[in-house]
Amino acid sequence: MRVLFAVFPAEAHTAPVVPLAWALRNAGHEVRVATHPDLTRPVTDAGLAAVPVGGAASLAQLVDLGRNPALRDHPEGGLAVDPERRLDWGATWYRTTRVLAGMRPLMEELTGIAVRWRPDLVLWDPLCLPAAVAARLSGAAHARLLWGQDNVAWLRGRYQRYMQQAQPGGWPDPLEEVMQQLLEPYGLPYEEELLLGQWTIDPMPPGMRLPAAVRYEPMRWVPYEGGVRVPDWLHTRPARPRVCAVLGKAGRGRPAPLDGRLSATELFAAAAGLDVELIVSPDPETGGGPVPPGRVRQLDRIPLGQVLPECAAIVHHGGEAEFAAAAVHGVPQLIVPTPFWGEETAADYVVSRGAGLALDRMECGRGPLRDSLTALLHDPGFRERAALLREELVAVPAPARLVPVLEELTGRHQRI
């Protein structure tokens, strides 16, 4: 069968696509990946066929969302969902629908590609609604491929519960205008599957899943970082425990927030009394910090899949890539969550499984950092429970095992 992936215009949204795309290729299926012209290189570097969609001008604002930290650091700019902490779901739903609306320029191009190439299955990013419409117009089956927790489905369900209880003249649904603009030109009525897919592929652990009325097909997260050159020092046994710290990049490859960010200087000061080797990304300005020479390895980009198997702990901001890679390799985690999408949920999940610790980013001083790292390094229980978390993830079907499921679901939902 022919499978078309539609990816949000951010490089890190490509990484979760690659393992499933190759599983489909290895099973004999044709695969193409529709993405922004600026982001075709990561697709082709992975050996996949890239289809450029959305010119630089048409999606400039969304591309900037992945590159400009100021857009995230604004107090009203986040898209985080945490039912246990956040009550402002209405404002978050509104901001999310604005991002959904920003993908509208892809409508004509994706429709043209789908109608001409005639894919059997379209797998689309949960923020790329035009792909669902294109699938409907071409007769293809379609499903969402998540890269983190399912904020869209949870927020949609929360709004529907609100409407069941609201008085006449209540808060209007901000999604209505978005879907109207997408569907009216093609004479299509709104259906929930155009927002939530005919089914949804979820690479996050089932225990992290938000409650939503969606059919989920679980898929194991397989870390992918592109082609990397393995550092020579990874071929030797470390003289002291290694601690990986992903500080300058939060989650999906974006610069870390400026406000309340855990800095390399703070980490170095916290680790000064610990006999550890730090692996830090990106290249930090230490300013002659207290860590002795030879105890810090600075990499522009850490190949987590290569580095983590030799690490005793990882420090990060709660991004999906870092959380999942650490979980897959059974590495204890210290998370200083930076709320943007599901970082707080990841921190809560790790802590609830006893596989790590979490610190509030606004109260994360040298003392708490040092205490947390000391606990992770010296309490064997964290390593043991991180290994149990790894077993939990390994039990989830790998991408290759999901292929027959996709074949069956495609045959059931495809409109020939």
Structural notes for this entry:
With 416 residues, the protein is α/β, with parallel strands linked by helices. The chain folds into 2 domains: 2-220 and 396-413, Rossmann fold (3-Layer(aba) Sandwich), CATH 3.40.50; 232-394, Rossmann fold (3-Layer(aba) Sandwich), CATH 3.40.50. Helices cover 39% and strands 14% of the residues. It contains 17 helices and 15 strands. The protein has helices at residues 17-26, 40-45, 60-65, 69-73, 89-102, 107-117, 129-138, 151-165, 175-183, 193-196, 264-271, 304-307, 320-328, 343-352, 366-378, 380-394, 399-413, and strands at residues 2-6, 30-35, 49-52, 121-124, 141-145, 200-202, 216-218, 242-246, 249-250, 254-255, 277-281, 296-298, 313-316, 333-335, 356-358. It has a 7-stranded parallel beta sheet, with helices on both faces. Strands 12-11-8-13-14-15 form a 6-stranded parallel beta sheet, with helices on both faces. Strand 9 and strand 10 (254-255) form a beta hairpin. Residues 69-77, 249-260 and 283-291 have low confidence and may be disordered.
Secondary structure elements and pairings:
Elements (H helix, E strand, L loop, with lengths): L1 E5 L10 H10 L3 E6 L4 H6 L3 E4 L7 H6 L3 H5 L15 H14 L4 H11 L3 E4 L4 H10 L2 E5 L5 H15 L9 H9 L9 H4 L3 E3 L13 E3 L23 E5 L2 E2 L3 E2 L8 H8 L5 E5 L14 E3 L5 H4 L5 E4 L3 H9 L4 E3 L7 H10 L3 E3 L7 H13 L1 H15 L4 H15 L3
Parallel strand pairs: 1-2, 1-4, 2-3, 4-5, 5-6, 6-7, 8-11, 8-13, 11-12, 13-14, 14-15
Antiparallel strand pairs: 9-10
Query: How would you classify the helix and strand content by structural class?
Result: alpha/beta
Enter the CATH topology name of the largest domain. Rossmann fold
What percentage of residues falls in helices of 4 or more residues? 25-40%
The named CATH superfamily of the largest domain: Glycogen Phosphorylase B
Give the tally of β-strands: 15
Average pLDDT rating: 86
Gap from first CA to last CA: 13 Å
* Count of distinct structural domains: 2
Strand content: 5-15%
General shape: globular
CATH architecture of the largest domain: 3-Layer(aba) Sandwich
Please identify the oligomeric state: single chain
At the first level of CATH, the class of the largest domain is: Alpha Beta
Q: Which parts are unreliable, with pLDDT below 50 for 5 consecutive residues or more? A: 69-77, 249-260, 283-291
Largest sheet report: 7 strands, parallel
Q: Name the strands of the widest sheet in spatial order.
A: 3-2-1-4-5-6-7
- Specify the number of helices: 17
Radius of gyration from the alpha-carbon trace, in angstroms: 22 Å
